[in-house]
Structure of Tyrosinase copper-binding domain-containing protein:
Amino acid sequence: MASSSIPPTATLTGPYSTKTLSSSSSITTSLSPFFPNKSQKPTKQCSVSVGGVRCQAKNGDNDHLDQGLGKLDRRNMLIGLGAGGLYGAAGLENNPFAFAAPVSAPDFTECGPADKPDGSTIDCCPPITKTIIDFKLPDPGPLRTRRPAQDLAKDPVYLAKYKKAVALMRALPDDDPRSLAQQAMVHCSYCDGGYPQVGFPDLEIQVHFCWLFYPFHRWYLYFYEKIMGELIGDPTFALPFWNWDAPAGMYIPEIFTDPTSSLYDQYRNAAHQPPKLLDLNYGGSDDDVDDATRIKENLTTMYQQMVSKATSHRLFYGEPYSAGDDASPGAGNIESIPHNNIHLWSGDPKQTNGENMGAFYSAGRDPLFYSHHSNVDRMWSIYKDLLGGTDIDKTDWLNTEFLFYDEKKNLVRVKVRDSLDTKKLGYVYDNKVPIPWLKAKPNPRKSQNQRKAAVSSGDLTTAFPATLSDKISVEVARPSTTKRTSEQKKAQDEVLVIKGIEFAGNEPLKFDVFVNDDADSEAGKDQSEFAGSFIHVPHKQKKNIKTNLRLSITKLLEELDAETDKSLVVTLVPKLGKGPITIGGFSIELLNTT
Ligand code: C2O
C-alpha cells in the first residue's frame, strides 16, 4: 500500500556531519534514504591509525528511528477504518502520534499458508472455532514448579509423567488443537506469516524481533503445560527448563536424547547430542575452543545480555510493535543471544531448512523447543525478581492479544497484561538453581595504552547502505565526549544502533560486532571489545526482513577507557549467511533507560 513505501525520515549520523532529511511521498524506496543526493554526501573528518582515532567529528543528532510519516499515515488509516471501538482513546501517551493501537488477536478465518524458508508454503492454520472465551486468571492453587531438565533424569516418577504427556500429545489426531502437531503449528502461523494483522491485510503478525517475544512465548508455554497436565490428569505437572545458562545445563539435557523416548526428535544436529558443550554464541560451525574457555564465554554472554546490557526496556524486551507497524522492528537481548543461537545449534544442518529447531515453522515439533523456551521465560522472571527489572507500562504492549486453544480445546483470547506474573498463572521457577553468570564480567583484551582500534582510515567504509559481504569497519561519532556521571548513566544508556539491517529471512544469518578491536584478530566472546551479534533463525516474511540492532555500550566504553573519545571504530564480521545483507547505517545514541 502506498503509505508503507514512504521511507522514514532519515537522519545521517556518523563521524562526518549530520543532516536530517525529511522524506516526502514522492521519494521511492529505491532511493537511499541515507544519501538522497550527492550534495549531501559527508566529508570525512577523521583519521584512524594504530594508537589513536583523531576526529573533527560533530556530535551526531540522534536518530531515534521514528517511523515518522509512514507510521502517522498508518495510524490515520487505522482510525479511518472505524476500528475505534477496538482501539479506543485509552492510553494516549505523550507522543501525539501514539494512539493506543495494540496488535489485535489474529482472525483465524483469515489464516493463510505460512512461508517455509525454502520458498514453499505450508498450511499451519488452526482449527476454526466460533466461540472465543476471554482468559480469566485461574483460582490460586498449588504452584507448578518448573525444574532444570538436567536434574530430571534422576527423578523417574517425574520423567515417566513427562514422557507420557508428550506421548499422548503425539498420539492425538493432527486436527486436535492439543496435539503436538497442532502445537507446532501455533508457532508456525504466528511466526511465518500465517496471519494478517486485523485491519492491515498487507501486514503480517510477527511475534519475534519485537517486544511481543517474551509474552507470546509465555502464553504459548502456559497452554502447552496445561495441556500436558490435563492429558495425564495431573494439574501440578510443570514443564522443565533447559538450564543452558549454567555449566550443568550447557548440553542437550539427557532426557531428550534417548531415541526410544517420546521426548526425542530425530531432526537435531547429530554432532551436538553426544553430549556436546553448548556455544551460546553459535554461528553455524563448531570452533576449536576448550571447554573452560567456552564456559567462561557463555557465562560472560549471559551476564552481558541479562545485566550489563539490559539497561532499558527496549534492549531487554525488544522494540515496540503496534497495530499497523511493519514486522520485526528489533529484538531484545535474550531473543537475539542466546535464544537464536541455540535454535541454530540444535537443528539438523542436514535438513533443507535446519529442521526442526533451526527454523521457526518447524521448531515446535521438537519437545526440546518448549524446555528451551521455558528457560527463556525464566530469564524474564530473573530479570524482574532478581535484577530489578520492571514491566513495560505502554498500553500498546499490555493490551496486545493472542489466541490459543486451552487444555479443554476452548479457544481463549489472552492479553499481555495477564502474563506478567507467573504466580498468577500458577507456576514458578525452582529458585534454588545456581545462577553463576551474575558476576561474570568481561575484561578488555588490551591494556589501556593499546586500546584504540588498529584500523587505518583507508579501511573504513563510508557509504551506506552497504552490502555486508566481507568484514567492514566504520567510524561512528559519539553523542557526548564528556565523561558522564553514574547518575547520568543510570538515566541514559549509550547505545550503538545498526539500522536498516535488511535480508531475505530464509537463511540463517549471523554477524559479530566489535568496537575498537584489533584489525587482524577478533576479541573473544568474554572480552569487552566484542559488542554483540546480529543473529537470525530462518523464517520468511512476505517482504524482506528489515530490522535494527541496538547494543548497549556504556560499560564497554568504561572498560575500554573510551568515554571521552569522539568516535568509535565499529567492525562487523559476517559469520553465517548466503544472501546479501544490507546495512542501512549506524549511530550512537543516548537512550532513556526508563
Ligand atoms: Cu518463537 Cu524460539 O522462537
